[in-house]
Amino acid sequence: MGIGLIGKKIGMTEIFDEHGSMIPVTVIQAGPCYVVQKKSPGKEGYAALQCGFEEIQKVQRVNKPLMGHFNKATAKPAKILREFRVTQEDLEAQDVGSTFSVEMFEPGEFVDVTGTSKGKGFAGVVKRHGFHGAPASRGSHEFFRHGGSIGQNMTPGRTMKGMKMPGHMGAKKVTVQNLKIIDVRGDTNILLVEGAVPGPTNGFVIVKKAVKKQK
Amino acid sequence: MNEMVDMIEKEHMRLDLPEINVGDNVKVYTRIFEGDKERIQVFEGLIIRKRGGNTRMTFTVRKVSYGVGIEKTFPKHSPLIDKIEVTSKSKIRRSKLYYLRNLRGKAAKLKEKRD
Questions:
Q1: How big is the CA angle at B57 (ends A20 and B76), to the nearest 5 degrees?
Q2: Does A93 reach chain B within 8 Å, measured CB to CB?
Q3: Does the interface predicted TM-score (ipTM) exceed 0.85?
Q4: Residues of A in Cβ contact (< 8 Å) with B76
Q5: Does A14 sit within 8 Å of B56, measured CB to CB?
Q6: In chain B, which residues have their Cβ closer than 8 Å to the Cβ of A29?
Q7: Interface test with B, best of A9, A12, A15, A188 (most B CBs within 10 A)
Q8: Residue A182 belongs to what H/E stretch?
Q9: I want to staple B89 with a disulfide (CB 3.0 to 4.6 A). Which of A158, A179, B6, B113 is the partner?
């Protein structure tokens, strides 16, 4: 719940704090986001604000149905549209076209950052689930990064559901909770967040106030 | 690297420190906190390595103390560095002077660079 900010991961660096410790920070260019549509319980069945981020420069590439959607809100076409579920009061407080910027956050606050993690392709159990693999010496032969047994015999006679096995890893929605905001720069729409954030450089992320940890 | 990241890094750089290079003999004055007391510790030696750009730059100083080689790596732009003094510069032919670790005494000496 609650409004968040759509942003773009710019990269990581290190800065020093007042005690001289080095802090790893992620640079996020967040907002300004503008409300394109209000979804109400009466019409759509739930209260939400649909927000747009990053204007599309080449307007001729926006297809007609989507252009119509933006025209209805008299908003500029955005590359990214995301919905934020809000309370009824918040919904009434906001109008179509109102904007949000990094100024909604303060240094020292905690945020949750959601993004799409980097795709790792078809990964084995050591990389995917953190298995330890098998001993490399003492007679091992062609069995180093295997997962071992995946079950019993006649009873139960099948492999349990949810058994950790090799498969596709990454490229899915990941949220990192309780990241501290180090700096907010209103003029360039930059957020400096302590620690790493899911996804590649130039990947889109959503920054929200932390659900679990308050200032 | 992204310009924006570059800009943020440049803001945190220490511009009051002298330019240092590999092969320089330096005195590094660091601020050390012991409880609530603060004092300054000096580490004198030869820079054998410099890596990273902008605020991420670190350099390694090597000295031989009582026959034992000691190396210490400092982040150049750390606020804990009080000052750096360059006492002399040397002629060098490579960017990392790791080979000095295997040399002792006179063999580990570098030719001084005079301007």
A1: 50
A2: no
A3: no
A4: none
A5: yes
A6: 4
A7: A15
A8: strand A173-185
A9: B113
SS3 state at A91: helix
Contacting A residues, span 154-213, partner chain B, CB-CB under 8 Å? 188, 190, 192, 201
A67-91 pLDDT, tens digit per residue, is 888 888 877 888 888 888 888 877 7
Q: How do residues B31-61 score in pLDDT, each as one tens digit?
A: 988 888 889 999 999 999 999 888 889 999 9
Which of A16, A29, A201 is opposite residue B12, by nearest beta carbon?
A16
B78 part of contact set with chain A, CB < 8 Å:
yes
E strand or H helix at A6: strand A5-16
Question: Hunting for tokens 């890094």 — which residue is that?
Answer: B9
Q: Searching chain B, which residue's CA lies closest to the CA of residue A29?
A: B4
Taking an 8 Å cut-off on Cβ atoms, the answer to whether B8 and A27 are in contact is: yes
Q: Are A68 and A74 in contact (CB under 8 A)?
A: no
Read off the pTM.
0.82
* Res B41: pLDDT: 92
Q: Which residue has the higher pLDDT, B105 or A107?
A: A107
B 12-41 residues with CB < 8 A to A: 12, 31
DSSP-derived pairing of the beta strands A190-194 and A22-30? antiparallel
Mean pLDDT (chain A, rounded): 88
